[in-house]
Design goal:
The structure is a single chain. The protein contains 6 helices and 8 strands; from the N terminus they run H-E-E-E-H-E-H-E-H-E-H-E-E-H. The chain is an alpha/beta fold. It has a single domain, classed as 3-Layer(aba) Sandwich (Rossmann fold). The strands form 2 sheets. Strands 1, 4, 5, 6, 7 and 8 form a 6-stranded parallel beta sheet that branches. A two-stranded antiparallel ribbon has the order 2-3. Strand 5, helix 4 and strand 6 form a beta-alpha-beta unit. The radius of gyration is 21 Å and the shape is globular. The relative contact order is 0.17.
């Protein structure tokens, strides 16, 4: 093997090493987290008014919160890390007691204690955050969540299944709580009356495609 061929092989090998290192660096620094708070209820959604923010999904015998359903659709597309927000003291599962409980939390400005912390939160660049709307506000546990972590330099992408008020004032509150994050104001919002429509997965995928977030 002559010297010229050796030099060419060395250059090719070196470029491959650089390319691999670059791809690994992007993979490690571009992690995506999908956080959701979702409260399944033992309730019928028929005739429920728009202030309630009921969060129930029954699909193929499985009961889950509707925001959990959207979170799982997002995870299927982008392969991010799922994290469910759960409180130490559980919320009521009956509809009216849940509404009364949520209203009392708002009145008191409560900060419910979250069961677990997110491991390696600093390693995530993009954070999807999903939650219902209760009495025209995000649940008080979401205040606990946003006050627990530093989102500086991260991108926050909100989504919600709501009862008619879309994001209400929650985007303004998130911006107030995390002023050094980049908040995407064009989040995904869906009426709970439409959550079981067959085209919802396609709607979520189309929305994600506009965000240009690579699968992780």
């Amino acid at each position: 093997m002559n010297n010229i061929l050796r030099q060419r092989l060395f250059c090719v090998s070196f470029l491959l090493i650089l390319l691999t290192a670059s791809m690994n660096a992007r993979s490690e620094s571009g992690k995506t987290l999908i956080v959701y708070f979702s409260q399944p209820e033992n309730a019928s959604l028929n005739g429920v008014d728009g202030v309630s923010g009921a969060s129930l999904l029954q699909s193929k015998g499985q009961v889950m919160g509707s925001n959990e359903y959207i979170a799982r659709l997002i995870e299927q597309r982008i392969k991010g890390t799922l994290f469910r927000i759960e409180t130490v003291n559980p919320y009521p599962v009956e509809h009216q007691p849940l509404l009364d409980f949520a209203e009392d939390e708002q009145r008191k400005g409560s900060r419910p204690v979250i069961k677990a912390r997110i491991a390696d939160f600093d390693s995530y660049d993009t954070v999807f955050v999903g939650y219902p709307i209760w009495w025209y506000k995000m649940p008080m546990v979401m205040y606990s969540f946003f006050e627990q972590y530093d989102f500086a330099g991260k991108k926050i992408i909100p989504f919600t299944v709501h009862g008619g008020s879309r994001f209400a004032d929650s985007l303004r509150e998130i911006k107030r709580l995390q002023p050094n994050a980049t908040l995407l104001t064009d989040g995904f919002s869906l009426s709970r009356n439409d959550v079981l429509d067959d085209d919802v997965p396609d709607e979520v995928n189309q929305w994600l495609a506009t965000l240009r977030i690579d699968s992780k």
